[in-house]
């Protein structure tokens, strides 16, 4: 098997490789991927620093053309890349192809942004002086990504970084180097000058840490766990660098008595269990008022029985496996914790055997949960959800907001009054009415509040806040 290497200063390099394993079939090796060490990371950062002066002054048409070309190739190869994604991460083929299309759309959007970057001209408070406000690239951007969106998250960090003239050192999650390698290869062949985009695959504690420890990384964008996010923050404060964090969620989905039962059940099923519950926007707390509670639980449980959990690449599969053995163990631990805490397991939670050896888990639903239980407070990051019974809308809103996190929040209701009040009062970065808490557009801001996020929003025009720095220029008119 050939080794997929790291890209450092425009050269593919590295011979120390590890296997990328398919979670739907552990006998299937997706490929061999190089592991960088700290010296490789330093070389990548030096290459990005050297490439910055020229790239940050490059013409906007050159950047536009490269990002457009990358978008076109991703779109043309969507079936193949979507398959690679499903094979290495375990989400279904439809989800894998959908995510690949989204990556292509993101590169297309930021190709357009290259041509739309504008500043402001403002009269000075002093006569005869002009003030211009411009945006400039920040410098070398470090990008650290998680395994759950192997192509979309790298795309939504790399595309704006390059569009606004930054150079990049990119470290993908160890479990999903395949999609990361593919988009770096695409961008490299699309014509990026050497050193503008560097790929360093490998362990977080080695590769990620070496990025955090470098004084030459000017900005760090991170998506992953709360614990690692804190390390990114501390190291960034130490080096006085800009940083942006997207971390966990414990997203609530409120179901009111007046909800359309079908809408409520389908949205809950989707948000709690699709993509194997491995989305930071997944809803794991279903907060249900007492008038609809029993009907909702009966309908959701019935619906869960018909969901097909199997090999991600198989036609008809609706939910793929959990990403790896340690995540599966963690999910199953939480099922035990929920039972011990006194919640009632009404469906699922057991390991499943399928034709191929993989990490299959039957989606689990608890009822009789309280918001104080660990299963209601800690992010599980798997197909495990609990129903919390509440008296009325006021209690539902209070429970929804009673969490250390604040990424996404949803409600199922036919009441305009409650929907409007909820949109205004949900303590979250994103609010959904009669829609799943997961599943967002690529051209509008993404991000949260409280323990979920830190720094400017990602995606859409708002991405400029993080990936540029503002300069205020004063000129005497003469
Ligand atoms: P999860 O694996 O639960 O998504 P992590 O925070 O462990 O969350 O991983 C997210 C990303 O952070 C991965 O690319 C991982 O390799 C990286 N990472 C893990 N530990 C460190 C660290 N000490 N320094 C920098 N990056 C790290």
Automatic annotation (TrEMBL):
Residues 15-472 form the Aldehyde dehydrogenase domain. It comes from the Bacteria. Its EC number is 1.2.1.3. Gene3D superfamilies: Aldehyde Dehydrogenase, Chain A, domain 1, Aldehyde Dehydrogenase, Chain A, domain 2. The active site is at 246. The keyword Oxidoreductase applies. It comes from Gellertiella hungarica. One of its GO terms (molecular function) is metal ion binding. The keyword ATP-binding does not apply. It is an enzyme of class 1 (oxidoreductase). Keywords: Metal-binding, NADP, Oxidation, Oxidoreductase, Potassium. Belongs to the aldehyde dehydrogenase family. This is Aldehyde dehydrogenase (NAD+).
